[in-house]
Amino acid sequence: MLSKTLLAEFQKILGQENVFSDQADLVTYSYDAAVLDQVLPAIAVRPTSSETLGRTVALCHANGLPVTVRGAGTNLSGGTIPVENGVAIITNGLNAILEINARDLYAVVQPGVVTATLAAAAAQRGLFYPPDPGSQAVSTLGGNVAENAGGLRGLKYGVTRDYVMGLKFFDVNGETVISGSRTVKCATGYNLTGLMVGSEGTLGVFDEIILKLIPPPAHQKAMVAVFDEMQSASETVAEIIAARIVPATLEFMDNFTIRAVEDYSRAGLPVDARALLLIEVDGHRAQVEEEAAKIESICRRKGAGSIQVARNAAERDKVWEARRTALSALAKLKPTLVLEDATVPRSKIPEMVGALEEIAARHTLTIGTFGHAGDGNLHPTILTDKRDQHEWERVETAIDEIFDRALALGGTLSGEHGTGIAKSRYLKKETSRATIAYSKRVKAALDPKNILNPGKIFA
After folding, report:
1. Which of 212, 234, 264 is the last residue of a domain?
2. According to the model, what pLDDT value does residue 439 have?
3. CA-to-CA distance for 67 and 251, rounded, in angstroms?
4. CATH assignment at residue 230
5. N or C: more exposed end of the chain, with fewer CB within 10 A?
């Protein structure tokens, strides 16, 4: 519990209206989207300016108070679950788009700007911000950078790190650090921007973010390929990539997910399909038409029963909106939903899909699989009830096996959800003891009191 003296200091810096210490308020900031235990912070604070953010960090450091920065709390690895008796810094008061430069193709934003808000503002200026995590309607850009968020367009356009040109952030002492620039090239000093992207709030607190914007594609074409076999659909993904075609999006949905999404969204998805591929190509019109024709040919050759091509933007948007509801649709079916992030080389998608089916059957579990198959990033989603101890034990065993299988195929523990608490104990399986020790030394040098999001990434 925070002393009255410290509470008064926070209130002096931030104003009473931006300091929350009642338990009813703190519950809001005690969890994120991961299936992990809640932890109440001692206090939650809401800076509304760079100056008050820096002073808040400095006050926490001076008093040895653990700090967890939180945007919308949509992350799936426990990265924004606070530390007991710590401070949760809420970024929704830092939500200004400071600049959109249409001549030099960048934007400068505060960390609390919602992802979709920037995308819409860029579109109004005839520009395009590609990263599109599934939670983009509520997730914040500070959180996207901290977790290196991906999204449906990651296959062609990359992930958040590919758009971060520079950062202004506060170190543990509340001092301003500036990295990167507004220029296309920047080779000044260490690449601190690269270090901070994906650091999950363990090395600094973001104040301003410079993000690259690009021209939007001139033409788009979307299609849904329907398959009677999961294996045929997964093999098609590998075949499209092997043909040197890089769609803007190449998404996979199994039958269980298709039915859940259709019940939820009424988008007209074929509920009898064993699997769907949702594909979009974009670029110049001639290129789009040529690539779309090649993809249709590959899909039919690999056994697609039908291919539905969107006739207009409304049909296209309806399909993608339905895909984005997959998590919400599945979450309605059981009390507990565990969304995983197994990612493998794209050529290994067929093997990974087969492994997921085998793991689900062996442990008598319901696993709905969907995800960004084009970049190897699958989201096996286990539907369960954590209150059922015996079933939960099977779930935990299945998760271990999913990660082991992904790593055995040359994959990674996390394609876009980060490490946080949920995956920290697995880190040694993917990296090495020396890798973890090296990373811990970096953390200790930059945060000697270990107050910046302690307990995350490294178990």
Report:
1. 212
2. 96
3. 37
4. 3.30.70.2190
5. N
